[in-house]
Amino acid sequence: MIEITIDDRKLSVEKGITILEAARRNGIKIPNLCFDKRLRPYGGCRMCVVEIEGGRKLASACGHPAREGMVIKTNSPRVRRVRQSVLEFLLVHHPLDCPECDKAGECALQDLVFEYGVPETRFTGERKHAQPDVRGPLIELISNRCILCAKCVRICSQYQGRGALGLIGRGFPTVVQPAFGEVLECDYCGQCIDICPTGALISKPYKYKARPWFLEEKENICSFCGVGCTLTLGIREGRILRSKGREGAGINDGNLCGRGRFGFDYIYSENRLRTPLIKEGDEFRDASWEEALTYVARSLSSIRDAHGPNSIGAIGSPRCTVEDNYMLAKFMRAGLGSGNIASSEAFGYAGALRAFSLSFGIGSNPADLASPLGRDVILVLESDPTITHPVFGLNILRAKREGSRLLVADYRETKLTRHSNTWLQLRPGTLVALLNGMMNVIMDRGLFDRDRVSGIRGFSSLEAVVKEYTPAMVSEITGLTGEAVTDAAVTFANAPRRLVIMPLAVSENNKGPGSALAAANLLILLGEEPSSLQVPAEYCNTYGMLEAGIMPRGGGMDVFDMLYKPGHLRALYIMGEDPLVSMPDSRKIKNTLRSLDFLVVQDIVMTEAAELANVVLPASSWGEKEGHFINAGGLRQRIRKVVEATGKSQPDWQILRNLGLAMGINLGAKSFQDITKEADDFIAGGRREAEGAPRPAFHPVAYEPEEPCDSEFTYTLVTRDVLQHSGNMSTRSEALKLVQAEAFLEINEKDAERHAISDESHIKITSRRGAVYLRAKVTDAVPEGVVSTPVHFPSGGINELTHFSGNTCSRLDAVKIERVK
Amino acid sequence: MFNDTVLKEIEGIKAKYPDRRSALLPSLYIAQREFGWLSREAMTCVARSLNLPEAVVRGTASFYSMYKHKPAGRHVIQLCTNISCMILGAGKLVDFLETRYGVPANGTSGDGRFSLVIMECIGACGTAPAMLVNTDFYDNLSEKRIEEILENYK
Amino acid sequence: MEKVLLKNIDNPNSADIGEYRKAGGYRSLAKALQMQPADIVEEVKKSGIRGRGGAGFPTAMKWNFAMADPKFPKYLICNADEGEPGTFKDRPILEKNPHLLIEGMVISGYALGAEYGYIYLRGEYPAAKDILEGAIEQAYKENFLGDDILGKGVRFRLSVHQGAGAYICGEETALIESIEGKKGQPRTKPPFPVNVGAWSMPTIVNNVETLSNIPYIIEIGGEAYSAIGSSDCPGPKLYCVSGFVENPGVYELPMGTSLRDIIYKHAGGIKDNGKLKAVIPGGISTPVLPADAIDCAMDFVAMPKAGSMLGSGAVIVMDESVCMVRVTYRAMKFFEHESCGKCTPCREGTDWLRKILERIEHGKGREGDINLLSDVAGVMSGRTFCPLGDGAAGVVTGMIKHFRSEFEEHIRDKQCKFRN
Description:
The complex is a heterotrimer.
Chain A: E1 2-6, E2 9-13, H1 19-25, E3 49-52, E4 59-60, E5 71-73, H2 77-93, H3 108-116, E6 139-141, H4 151-159, E7 165-168, E8 175-178, H5 191-195, E9 201-203, E10 216-221, E11 230-236, E12 239-244, H6 258-262, E13 277-280, E14 283-286, H7 289-307, E15 312-315, H8 322-336, E16 341-342, H9 349-360, E17 377-381, H10 385-388, H11 390-401, E18 405-409, H12 415-419, E19 422-424, H13 431-444, H14 450-453, H15 459-467, H16 471-478, H17 482-494, E20 498-501, H18 513-525, E21 533-534, H19 542-547, H20 559-564, E22 571-575, H21 579-582, H22 586-595, E23 598-603, H23 608-611, E24 615-618, E25 627-630, E26 636-639, H24 652-662, H25 672-690, E27 715-720, H26 734-737, E28 744-748, H27 749-754, E29 762-767, E30 771-779, E31 786-790, E32 803-805, E33 809-811, E34 813-819
Parallel strand pairs in A: 1-5, 15-16, 15-22, 17-18, 17-20, 18-19, 20-21, 22-23, 23-24, 27-31, 28-30
Antiparallel strand pairs in A: 1-2, 3-4, 3-5, 6-9, 7-8, 10-11, 11-12, 13-14, 13-24, 25-26, 27-34, 28-31, 29-30, 29-34, 32-33
Chain B: H1 4-14, H2 24-35, H3 40-50, H4 54-61, E1 75-80, H5 83-86, H6 90-101, E2 107-108, E3 114-119, E4 131-133, E5 136-138, H7 143-150
Parallel strand pairs in B: 1-3
Antiparallel strand pairs in B: 1-4, 2-3, 4-5
Helix pairs in contact in B: 2-3, 3-4
Chain C: H1 17-22, H2 27-34, H3 37-47, H4 59-68, E1 74-80, H5 90-96, H6 98-112, E2 114-121, H7 126-141, E3 146-149, E4 154-162, H8 172-179, E5 203-207, H9 208-220, H10 222-225, E6 236-243, E7 249-254, H11 259-266, E8 276-280, E9 289-290, H12 302-305, E10 314-319, H13 324-338, H14 344-361, H15 369-380, H16 387-413
Parallel strand pairs in C: 1-2, 1-5, 2-4, 6-10
Antiparallel strand pairs in C: 3-4, 6-7, 8-9, 8-10
Helix pairs in contact in C: 2-6, 2-9, 3-4, 3-6, 5-7, 6-9, 13-14, 13-16, 14-15, 14-16, 15-16
């Protein structure tokens, strides 16, 4: 620590920080236009100049280190004069179009001019010639308003790792623009909008919507991925108009991805359910809550009475709150006496939990969003967290910038492969072979502490399995060179601080619990703790849903039996999920749903599954109800009702309580507070049970070949997530649809040429289970022989093609491709 | 995309530096040689061969005045008009080039024979005025001498 | 004075390694490799040499900073981005005496513990690129460069990095950005390049002329060297004289030769017996001196006292036919064109100044324009990110100070009456 004086205040500050940082941390405001704590100091705007006693020149506080004994004046007349001159320079060309600028009222430039006084207008020449504006689906750049602080360019390239905007030109004529032309194609994270100190970069969906001083700002937790960012919502007249990040708010500390920023409008989907619906013949008709709940109560009761409680099942939702899911589980277990409670996470995070339990002997392993920082080597396995968990992904990029070695094993090019030190481009689905191969090298070269590890349960069987995975054999399976496998193993084993990152997504078919087990084996072999295996839970409340009891227990059926084996169930209650879109092999699910005596779907919008239901119940969406989400890190965060519920919709937990009452079951919960407390206690109990030191064990996994390609089915289909969507709810967002409205099939340039396919061509894609039609996206991001598609889009119907195996995970599908004339 | 020979040349350049981005300026010169100027395609090739975002490539290229950001004539005249050259008559030579060869300052003649780039100092102040034609250097210029020199650039 | 930097350049094959060696070249390297690196630095320190790029920072001090940093590898970069208008002093070394520079770099690299060197050569010198690369190839062949130089186990690898036309890259942090493949925009200092330079490693950036002095310092010893020229900034100095003199060119003279002697004794006086009006003594970023102010020693210490700076030693001589408004306008066009655009005062200020100067020169000046020029220059001065903005402001301030009446005439008469 060092002692400095700022504006007559004696301060003790950390050595090595800048004057601006020292001031910020002590609540002293130094004005600036080009500073952001996420970026390297730039020193361009010259607003943050301060006077240092004894210094000849003024110093710019953002880049100047604070030194022992410094006496600093941040607001002397000399300093104020410089700031006035900077503002005069900027106002020479900045248009005074505040009356029609969205930013007016929260514009840094406007505020500073207000504070320092409007400078005398001595410039009488022509203003800077209007530059062409930049357009895009979600972000607009009005060039005239740009003051060239370069924050947008820097956050896009330094922090987001994207580099979609450039400072084009030199000196006075410089403009901020995308590489070529005037259309911005990027990640659409919109970080540039928040960081822009003027109204140059604005959100298109929000443009001209409201004056900031008319907005009521409320914070809420994002409803998409498992990171659990805090959104600052701007609300006017009961409608959410925008969402932004705010420095200091929530775990995201100001960062947001495009889904969190633009995707909230799914709650205004025209598809929203406004009233309960009862099917009569092939048509739904509106019904009152009383009628609908009486009908559901009577139907479920009679099925239970006739076929026993085990003939009824329920599907919970990672999108619903802890309270909602807890209530569903309670309704099933305590109310009906059925343990058939499951979720789509059987194909995702539940698999990770199984792996944690087998390998480390622990019931949970919450992710740590800061885990990448400070690691010597980070190994990312067939995943792109910058897509699945964007704000977590930022920490991986930051770690890389700060010196971590980044190894990425992935079949395709991603943002992370572009930023990696080493890209291990393996064949899809061969991760287990690579990991076994790495262990083979580590054992062969003695790069581990044999004395310590050989006593761990399963060591000898691991040794036996791994022995076969010589670099040469692994090379054969993965397509990597043996040398690459060896190098990766040696690099990883020799690093003092290591990390493996591999989210398991429901939508992915290239890895599963087996891959997680293999990764755990590698880490245990090297003496690592569970925290070195980062498998962040997928959605906003995946973690909380599982903790709230949405998993089969006490002999209850999992989704594999409930949904894929007609006849096991007579009735099914689905809450906030569409298994026909999110789970593999959807034709089988459709058969099962059709075979049921009674299907209830409770959701916020009409879904594919709801179309098959006997009764559809309208639930209030995120933003319309109170509750909690638990993020991937196990952090319980409050979500708030910020707008009124749509139509007659009600919170899920409330619908279930009322249904219970209609069935003569008292589920307790009189109020929201009651149910919150009860759920909380339940979760705390579960966490206490899971406590205890890890008991590591090796569970060797052998590489299993995927569905074979043959002369007919020549391509391997990999399903994945895309950046603009999360699950399928985001596909109801009009804003996000402007970027990606429908499913597409990525195909390598050379393969495309072979089939005379070009961008946007219609393609028929057929697997051994079904066929769907998609548009082509020709790219060099996927290798030859592999095609890839996102599963988010209900209309895409991708899961008609897919399959899974052995009650574990989705597997790669062999498909054929035809161009549709 | 660049052909294999060019890609190899770029790999050779990358090897001279500790990171790939450092090869950007030399690679842009190569792209300019291959495409005649830094067209969109040329910059895309550079971006792909160095694994850099296109906006980074374009932004960097646009900072430097010796890259050609539009198609140029067959021969590029780079004439210095900075002070030492200016006071010794470079301004008149600019006018001369326009009237005699139809090549405007920072433009290209109608017949596509010459482009004229107004340069800042090219380090020939002792023998001013001076110019480069492509990469050939000429100094002590006068209207007559320019006529003689340009005879060699058809 | 014996020629050191321009030695042998009249030999048409002076760039050839054979000719260079015949004249004694690479002997200093052999001598240096017998010495301890610290002793070499000591000699350089004793020599008192100051950097020839313009700022005049003591070379040994810069070296010591870099050596004190424990990080490796270290990089040695030769600044051959000679862009200051009026300057053409490094060019004869680069084109006619490349081995002198290479020898200087290998010695310096050995002394500094830097194994990698780059010559950042301005794009405007395409001929020099071929010559330097040819010379480097020769030096590798004869084992003056490589992984085991002269069998002493010393490694130094050298290559040429060609700039692409940006004056600001002469600023050392901008130069480093540029070598890293970025826009040449200066970096925030501290950290200084000697600690965090190219690729975040300790980096020493020295001018061509500075590095070319090193073999001579090793040859005659620091003490003997320090006896040449001015006592507080000794050594031979290259002065380049252009404009209205009888014999423009590069002159190697002892540091501190008077400006009057440079113009009248060495460059042959004013062309066609004209009358001297003004001199820009150190490249156009240095303030102009009127005809009666040329009795000053051209070195780093004396010139500021005389109201200007040594800069790059680029003397631009102007006679009575030259319009000072036009010169100022042209200079400002240059600064506006070369401003990197990073900081507000320089980016906006140069544009504004240029526009005012343009209208004055074209007979459209307004009352109050001169004060406006002074004001704008005043708020730029000392407030820009790097010295480019200071230079631009200084030119205007200096010109108005000495030639205010000429500006007033332009505004009053609504025209420019000068021939040049």
